[in-house]
């Protein structure tokens, strides 16, 4: 449900999702500038509000970051379906090229590589060996796109985020910690 809260003298709209599975509150600001709060089903609105207010600077920083990023990559009138169609082939070529490069090290079996128009994820990996990437990887700086591709490819060896998984990532992206922190600071921490 749509809600509004006042943060540092500005009204901020957000979507509240109440979840029976959520054990704690989660704040997320996405590339399109949407702000989503996920809360456990037994949490009161006043606790939700206090949590958002406590994290207000983080929220405002992320909203501003994505506003600027959005202006950089997409005009206000941009249609995401048109963008998807425009960048899909470039994203697929990028993903396939970098997977070939990284897989000289890993030698994993890959089923398919797909490009999707996802709202909340940069990539995903299925146990069937399918690698999926957001078409917007084609718009990222190369080192960020490389990290996302190597990250998902590494899941074919370790389908978790254990130390063994991070050791796999480090084989092809030794500075993965710095890149991961950069993505997190930029609000892209979906990993």
Question: What structural class should be given to the helix and strand makeup?
Answer: alpha/beta
pLDDT < 50 runs, ≥5 residues: none
Q: Per the principal axes of the C-alpha atoms, what is the gross shape?
A: globular
Strand order of the largest sheet: 1-2-4-3
Level-1 CATH class name of the largest domain: Alpha Beta
CATH homologous superfamily assignment of the largest domain: Metalloproteases ("zincins"), catalytic domain
User: So, CATH architecture of the largest domain?
Assistant: 2-Layer Sandwich
Query: Mean pLDDT across all residues, rounded?
Result: 88
Q: How many domains, as an integer?
A: 2
Give the helices and strands as they follow along the chain: EEEEHHHEEEHHH
Give the C-alpha Rg. Answer: 18 Å
In helices, the fraction of residues equals 40-55%
Main sheet record:
4 strands, mixed
- The CA-CA distance between the termini, in Å, is 26 Å
Number of helices: 6
Strand content: 15-25%
**And the CATH topology of the largest domain?**
Zincin-like
The beta-strand count equals: 7
List keywords for this structure.
single chain; 191 residues; alpha/beta; 7 strands; globular
């Amino acid at each position: 449900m749509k809600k509004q809260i006042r943060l540092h003298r500005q009204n901020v709209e957000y979507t509240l999702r109440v979840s029976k599975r959520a054990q704690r509150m989660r704040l997320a600001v996405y590339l399109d500038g949407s702000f989503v709060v996920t809360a456990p089903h037994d949490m009161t609105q006043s606790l939700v509000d206090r949590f958002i207010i406590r994290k207000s600077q983080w929220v405002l920083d992320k909203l501003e970051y994505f506003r600027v990023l959005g202006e950089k990559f997409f005009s206000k009138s941009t249609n995401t379906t048109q963008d998807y169609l425009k960048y899909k082939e470039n994203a697929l070529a990028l993903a396939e090229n970098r997977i070939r490069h990284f897989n000289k090290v890993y030698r994993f079996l890959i089923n398919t590589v797909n490009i999707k128009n996802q709202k909340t994820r940069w990539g995903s990996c299925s146990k069937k060996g399918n690698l999926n990437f957001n078409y917007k990887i084609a718009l990222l700086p190369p080192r960020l796109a490389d990290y996302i591709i190597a990250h998902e490819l590494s899941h074919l060896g370790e389908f978790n985020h254990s130390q063994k998984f991070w050791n796999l990532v480090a084989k092809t992206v030794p500075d993965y910690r710095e890149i991961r922190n950069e993505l997190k600071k930029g609000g892209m921490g979906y990993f």
